[in-house]
Inverse folding.
């Protein structure tokens, strides 16, 4: 049990996917202007991450043992199809949610966090349950980073900044500061 | 920001409705072609990749066993026996060890490759161990994805790496060594990675030490029995 | 889409529509592997190979790809080229492959590559697609090497592994750590914006 909590925490804050590993930067930069959209994007990501993790566990156990060189291509095909299926299901079951998620859902396909999760999970040899903890932690970490970023950006809209810093430059500097803060979580490891 | 770009594209090339059969067959064809190409490239690159890996391993084994005259690959099975070969298909269950011999054919030490999670990802290392003296011969990190500039010092910091020579396991990673045997000074700024290295060796030896020692005492008994 | 000349297709991606610095595409690899110049170059070359290969193929096959499943087919094509690049790097320059690690596989999800297929290669003849891919790839390489150079010089005090300032230099280790990536790109963008503003002032004044 302790091991699982550890995997979760490590993926969430110590090796935060966005701020320490640079995975999932596209939505981080693109959808972090409003807290509400950030939360929704985070939720959609957690959902896809968890299904991906489950599927990848099965793929690794049954198919890729024989043909490791087909790894990248089968992962990406699985992710692309999963996103497509999730999209269709949500559209049928809850058109409201579908409208709210809008463009973010198909974009998850090219979110490197998802493929990154599949690859890290495989490299580290996580079993089914560990993979789930890892996916939940990664998803929670992505959401945390997105929401933090969105909150800061909402505030900074009212601040007076030099004209040259109104674009992405400022966003990246904020991300850098957040990333510095998250490095502090490494202390969790040395105290264990 | 990709969203803007992808969306900016105009409509797909064929706006008219395509039959499911056509979609499935083109996807299938693309998949088959992709698979074929990958298998082809894999076939061509397999040999150099494996040759490189074997070469890296050979160099690493020689290094941590202090240049033995030759070495043999043996298998420690799951029940702790040491065999020269294992039945095909069960290689993954057995643990490979490399026993080094000097010019006279005496076994001088054993090299073991092992790995576990470090700070960021798996650390893989190889260490040489001499069961006769009970001391480590050397340690070499083979693969690490630790933070460049901090954690990756476990591979590059010679002062850290050289501490493993003649250290007596079980090891302990400490901030300031008191000179007790088995103490390893952790690298400042890479405490977690240093501890991971120490833990990998300790755990690996805890599992393998008994079979290795048994093998070595048998080997020396055999040598004495010879005229 | 307005007509462009071949020269425009080639030059556009290098600076005016630079994928990283202007369009903010492909940021994951741009920040993750640029802690030194050598890795940046290797990543840029691998990406260029994948981009050129898949743009050519997509442009050649565009008539046979049904619109509804085009994204899946593009991803499939890109993934194939990435696997080829992965295996080739591993066979030819294993040391660099080791340093780039999992990030080679992540070229598949580099939004820049998919973006070029969707926005350009799927609508243009192969010659133009090739020029566009070369230009975009070169632009990506320029951005990566710029980032890599700044981070390696400040963070390790060296360039391409050659020490610049001697042993008394105390490196800014933070520059080769993750925050340094964000900060360097942020600072670069600020400089660009400042430069652009100055140009505008010059033109209008």
């Amino acid at each position: 049990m302790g091991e699982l909590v550890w995997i979760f925490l490590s993926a969430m804050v110590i090796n935060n996917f966005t701020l320490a590993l640079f995975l999932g930067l596209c939505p981080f930069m693109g959808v972090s202007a409003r807290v509400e959209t950030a939360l929704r994007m985070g939720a959609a990501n957690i959902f896809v991450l968890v299904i991906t993790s489950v599927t990848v566990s099965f793929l690794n156990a049954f198919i890729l043992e024989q043909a490791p060189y087909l790894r990248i291509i089968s992962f990406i095909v699985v992710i692309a199809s999963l996103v497509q299926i999730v999209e269709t299901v949500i559209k049928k079951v809850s058109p409201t949610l579908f409208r709210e998620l809008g463009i973010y859902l198909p974009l998850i396909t090219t979110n490197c966090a998802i493929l990154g999760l599949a690859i890290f999970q495989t490299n580290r040899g996580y079993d089914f349950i560990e993979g789930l903890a890892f996916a939940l932690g990664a998803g929670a970490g992505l959401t945390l980073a997105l929401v933090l970023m969105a909150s800061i950006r909402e505030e900074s809209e009212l601040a007076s900044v030099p004209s040259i810093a109104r674009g992405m430059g400022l966003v990246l500097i904020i991300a850098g500061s957040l990333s510095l803060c998250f490095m502090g979580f490494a202390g969790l490891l040395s105290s264990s | 920001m990709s969203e803007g770009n992808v969306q900016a594209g105009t409509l797909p090339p064929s706006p008219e409705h395509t039959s499911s059969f056509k979609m499935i067959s083109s996807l299938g064809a693309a998949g088959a072609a992709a698979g074929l190409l990958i298998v082809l490239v894999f076939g061509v690159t397999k040999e150099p990749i494996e040759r490189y890996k074997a070469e890296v391993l050979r160099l690493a084994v020689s290094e941590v066993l202090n240049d033995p005259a030759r070495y043999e690959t043996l298998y420690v099975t799951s029940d702790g026996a040491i065999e020269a070969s294992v039945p095909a298909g069960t290689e993954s269950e057995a643990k490979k060890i490399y026993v080094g011999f000097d010019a006279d054919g005496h076994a001088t030490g054993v090299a073991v490759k092992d790995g576990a999670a470090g700070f960021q990802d798996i650390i893989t290392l190889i260490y040489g161990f001499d069961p006769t003296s009970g001391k480590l011969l050397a340690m070499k990190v083979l693969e690490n994805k630790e933070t460049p500039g901090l954690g990756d010092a476990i591979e590059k910091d010679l002062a850290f790496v050289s501490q493993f020579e003649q250290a007596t396991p079980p090891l302990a990673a400490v901030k300031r060594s008191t000179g007790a045997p088995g103490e390893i000074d952790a690298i400042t700024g890479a405490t977690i990675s240093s501890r991971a290295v120490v833990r990998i060796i300790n755990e690996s030896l805890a599992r393998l030490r008994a079979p290795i020692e048994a093998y070595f005492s048998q080997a020396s008994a055999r040598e004495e029995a010879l005229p | 889409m307005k007509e462009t000349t071949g020269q425009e297709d080639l030059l556009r991606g290098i600076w005016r529509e630079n994928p990283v610095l202007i369009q903010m595409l492909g940021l994951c690899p741009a920040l993750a592997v640029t802690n030194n110049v050598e890795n940046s170059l290797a990543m840029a070359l691998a990406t260029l190979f994948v981009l050129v290969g898949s743009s050519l193929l997509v442009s050649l096959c565009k008539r046979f790809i049904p619109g509804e499943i085009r994204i899946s087919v593009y991803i499939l094509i890109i993934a194939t080229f990435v696997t080829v690049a992965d295996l080739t790097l591993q066979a030819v320059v294993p040391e660099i492959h080791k340093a780039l690690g999992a990030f080679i596989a992540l070229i598949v999800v580099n939004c820049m590559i998919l973006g070029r297929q969707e926005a350009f290669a799927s609508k243009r003849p192969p010659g133009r697609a090739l020029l566009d891919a070369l230009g975009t790839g070169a632009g990506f390489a320029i951005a990566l090497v710029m980032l890599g150079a700044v981070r390696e010089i400040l963070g390790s005090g060296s360039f391409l592994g050659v020490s610049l300032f001697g042993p008394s230099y105390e490196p800014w280790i933070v520059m080769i750590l993750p925050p340094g990536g964000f900060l360097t790109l942020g600072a670069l963008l600020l400089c660009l914006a400042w430069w652009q503003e100055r140009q505008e002032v010059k033109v209008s004044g």
